[in-house]
Amino acid sequence: MRLFLATVLATTSLVSAADITVTQTGFTFSPSEVSALPGDVIRFVRTGGNHTVTSGTRCSGDGTFDSPLNVLNPLFLWTVPASAAGTTVSYFCVPHCFMGMTGSITVGTPVVIGDLNSDGAVNAPDLATLLSAWGGKGPADLDHSGSVDAADLAILLGAWTG
User: How many CB atoms lie within 10 A of CB 55?
Assistant: First the structure.
């Protein structure tokens, strides 16, 4: 049982970020619209010319990021911050914005496994909910085994944020 709990705790705390590639092709970003989650890495790749990747709207930068995309800087990486969850981050190329060289990143809100009361944290209220559902079914059945049990408790504790 201890080995099982240790394995569940170790595997539930691993989070894998996505690596999303946006390629500059001519005077476009392709794809021009992407979806991401906090922690994901957006990889802007140059194929030619002199461009920028500048956050903002209507060809006006907002200071979130601004990087050249040229022969000396053919790659720009931006890690989506947690503060961007639930927003859309628009960007453009400074010299070619008037030509429509724009794009956007729709940032979703990550689902927190074990957050049974949807407050963004896994903590004592979630533990209380899980314990009150012990032996039953429902949202506290985190491993979808058909019953709230020790495996679900291990998942919740592995995601504990305090």
Answer: 17
pTM: 0.69
**Rounded distance, CA 78 to CA 116, Å?**
31
Residue 127 burial by CB count (10 A; 0-12/13-18/19+): exposed, middle or buried? middle
Range of the domain at 135: 111-158
Q: What is the largest CA-CA distance in the chain?
A: 63
Average pLDDT taken over every residue of the chain: 90
For residues 35 and 81, membership in a common domain is answered with yes
Q: Are 54 and 65 in contact (CB under 8 A)?
A: yes
Identify the pLDDT of residue 111: 81
14 in a structural domain: no
DSSP letters for 84-136: GTT-EEEEE-GGGGGGT-EEEEEE-PPP-TT-TT-SSS-SHHHHHHHHHTTTS
Residue 98 lies inside a defined structural domain of this protein = yes
